[in-house]
Request: fold
Amino acid sequence: MTLYTKRLILRPWVESDAESLYEYAKDPAVGPIAGWPPHTSVDNSREIIKDILAVDETYAVCLKTDNIAIGSIGLLIGKASNIDISDNEGEIGYWIGVPFWGQGLIPEACKELIRHAFEDLKLEKLWCGYFEGNDKSKRVQEKCGFKYHHTKKDIYWRLMDEIRTEHITCLSKKSWIEDQQNELLANI
Reply:
């Protein structure tokens, strides 16, 4: 499936995205704050596409102007999530390359994935998390209507072999619908 926003295409990952994935995922400012190590080579990125990213509901974030992958956004449903959630709930995760920070692209992508999750997939609640210190991710979640739910302290994060603190936010379908209605009313 492919999703579209005003400026973006959210499409499935393909192996030919390995070079652009490596270009942005090798930056140590990107992966570690999101919970994964920087990519080490184009071949490493290709393996990550094959083993992790090329799955249902995980999308390459691409500008409409060139359709080149500059980030990723995905939805883990039910037991696939890192959070203990039911089958009618999902967890959203995302990142974008440093040159694209501060342009509102991930909130734009996130809002479309939220719409897809609630309208097309009929999920009832969405969850999102950010690690202590990742203020950019926290801000994305606030812009998209997620509300603080709880904090998990001193968790072992295997991918980075570290102890971390994670803040969990959530957005119910009911709250999302109310937000959509309020936005419509504000624009009348």
User: Anything to note?
Assistant: Strands lie at 3-4, 8-12, 58-63, 69-77, 89-96, 125-131, 147-157, 162-172. The mean pLDDT is 95.
